[in-house]
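Cont'd.
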Amino acid sequence: MKVRVRLFAAVREAAGCESVEIDVPKAATVGEVRRRLAERLPAAAELIRRAMFAVGTEYATDATEIPPNADVACIPPVSGG
Amino acid sequence: MIQLTTNPIDTEAVIDAVRSPAAGAVVLFVGTVREITDGRRTESLDYECYGEMAELQLAQLEDEARGQWDLVECLMVHRTGHLPVGEISVAIAASAAHRAAAFDAASWLIDRIKQVVPIWKKENYADGTHEWAHPGE
């Protein structure tokens, strides 16, 4: 299945776009998306390894399964405030 | 109460939003754009956020703070977009019957915002370079 991953900050800048579509097996986990995203964006691989991921608008762990049509976001370490 | 805005933050309005006859204390924290970080001169910051998720995370933090402290009101405002040095990037106001709860809640909220809310800043340095801040690098 295809998963659209939203990108932010330095990861977005390295990718040159606001989201990418990644091909993963059905019922893939966040960990699988992380691995494939890092392969797809080698310039941001270090940051992707350290990033949190969100499924919908909630933080997920690497073990979280991606539901069909889910909105996934790569959240590199935050720096608001 | 929470708010993300691209407009300048009006601190008087933030204070007024949490004032109440039930409160004997209002604490206001204001975060501003610092010029010198680690010896480098910053001209401005650009803040980016994942809006829907940031609003949800801020609302969850307010719920958690209200669970921990007896607050009358609470307002967190974060600005996004382009901010020159000296501008206010974030304001947190908490009101409570007595000051300890208001101080502690405001302090906890700014710490948690910096840990979990999906907002990022890009430092635009005076030497023309820029760098996203991703703590832990």
